[in-house]
């Protein structure tokens, strides 16, 4: 077990049932995503949901589509015009109340689903105009109910950078939930912020510095208000995707902790790896692996506790592709 797997158990993630291979689509088929089920599934606990079958639609069933206003569409049968909007919303309100108890740290929707699409969904306007930026009815309900929850769809997760960022966010969300739910003392907040320093910096350094100023008030601020404000800033920062330039800045910052330890050859080797990463000649995992080696070799406790160097299980191999 790595330090990434929290003491409170696996990360719990909501997911469209069809992505796990369940035959719940309108035609009785599935949309199995093997990476999600077989790779990520080793480190998370899935909370499967199929809004269409769970709100009363059968299998197989008539295909449905979004009709009407872009921001408030109706869910209707493609041929019959039967309106399922009210029934899905009524079921959805009850389901959201149940999900409140599931301690979710993220949600993966199904691209192209009129109930489950995170975005980029067709909405057929009443005047004949077609919009291409709609959101599935259930997906919108989830995001409105859990505004800070990391959410993605299976289509976007095929992008290596988006996948790495999303999985980073869900593991960070889980660590924050564990700390906050256990009672957030000033000492715990300072420890959390310190251990996540470089991870937050690689997303948004400006917000990181604002968070630092907030943490400095931990001894006198109201704990509840402080927790909410810190969490809002944390999750906002993590929505910014890291870039090669941001990673280079953080990698160089980490290297600065070894200025009294590395031999001239070791330093030059490390600088060369960072430069090769900067030029997209090698993936991020290469300089990070070398830095982790030096962390162990020279006993750098502070760096060993930095989640930037080990943000999630290495078996996910996410930094092999960014």
From TrEMBL:
Question: Lineage from the top down?
Answer: Bacteria, Pseudomonadati, Thermodesulfobacteriota, Desulfovibrionia, Desulfovibrionales
Q: Which domain of life is it from?
A: Bacteria
What protein name is recorded for this chain? DUF1722 domain-containing protein
Which PANTHER family does the record cross-reference, listed alphabetically?
A: INNER MEMBRANE PROTEIN
Pfam families (alphabetical) = 2-thiour_desulf (PF04463), DUF1722 (PF08349)
- Source organism (scientific name): Maridesulfovibrio salexigens (strain ATCC 14822 / DSM 2638 / NCIMB 8403 / VKM B-1763) (Desulfovibrio salexigens)
Start and end residues of each DUF1722 domain: 197-313
